[in-house]
Amino acid sequence: MQLPNALPIAQGVRLWPQALNPAQQSELLEVVLSTTAQAPFLRPTMPRTGTPFTVTQTNFGTLGWVSDAQGYRYQAHHPVTGQPWPPIPSLLLRLWHAALPDAPDPHCCLVNHYRDGARMGLHQDRDETALDVPVLSISLGADALFRLGGTSRKSPTQSLKLRSGDLLVFGGAARLAFHGIDRILAGSSDLVPGGGRINLTLRRV
Fold first, then answer.
1. How would DSSP label each residue in the chain?
2. Which of 74, 37, 41 is nearest to 205 (CA)?
3. What is the pTM of this model?
4. Residue 2 pLDDT > 90, yes or no?
5. Residue 102 has pLDDT above 90, yes or no
6. CB 58 within 8 A of CB 111
7. Can you give the pLDDT at residue 1?
8. Which tens digit of pLDDT belongs to each residue from 148-171?
9. Paired sense of beta strands 167-170 and 135-141, if any
10. By the 8 A CB rule, do 131 and 86 touch?
């Protein structure tokens, strides 16, 4: 799979705006939704407070990221079904290698489902030891206002609109950058059934 030239956003951050055309977005969404049938979406909770996330989540791959009373962690099985996570679909692996041709295969694809009103506070992806490998984020559905900062919570931030079909990579100096989703722009896409946005985040663990 060939990708167009990426736009540099910050040191270690690259964006491929709408790298996937509408037909490719629909194909990927169909693959994602059929795979989530094997690992249903669930609503995580914060470890200390038990506060539910505003997003629902599931995973593909040998390991999946979960959050509950026991804390943040990666594990090999779905916490409700007890079954192993389904393998990462080949279409997602092709996108990974197109964006990161020198990287080994990812262990995990975290699938976040944002309905209208959902958000994700500023956080770091720091539950992994493979911090030398960048993270790939793929957007499907509604536009989202993505906030990107530095490696300190006090670092200045910038806002970036992510659209359906966008690919975003952050690594190197930005691998531990704080980032989050301020809000979903309701009505900006009808790709995802029932509205909202699906974000796919692929990582080495």
1. ----PPEEEETTEEEETT-S-HHHHHHHHHHHHHHHTTS--B--B-TTT-PBPSSEEEEEES-EEEEETTEEEEESB-TTT-PBPPPPPHHHHHHHHHH-TTSPPPSEEEEEEE-TT--EEEE---S-S-TTS-EEEEEEES-EEEEE--SSTTS--EEEEE-TT-EEEE-GGGTT--EEEEEE-TTS---STTS-EEEEEEE--
2. 74
3. 0.96
4. no
5. yes
6. yes
7. 84
8. 999 999 999 999 999 999 999 999
9. antiparallel
10. no
Position 14: which residue type?
R
Q: Tokens in use for 48?
A: 């200390």
Residue 49 has pLDDT above 90, yes or no: yes
Q: What is the pLDDT of residues 122-146, one digit of tens each?
A: 999 999 999 999 999 999 999 999 9
At residue 137, the pLDDT reads 98
Domain 7-36+53-203 CATH class label: mainly beta
Cα 15 from Cα 54, distance rounded (Å): 25
Domain residue limits, the chain = 7-36+53-203
Q: Report the C-alpha gap between 20 and 1 in whole angstroms.
A: 11
Distance CA 111, CA 176 (A): 20
Structure tokens at 108: 């995990």
Both tokens assigned to 155: 């670092």
- In the chain, the N- to C-terminal Cα span, in Å, equals 24
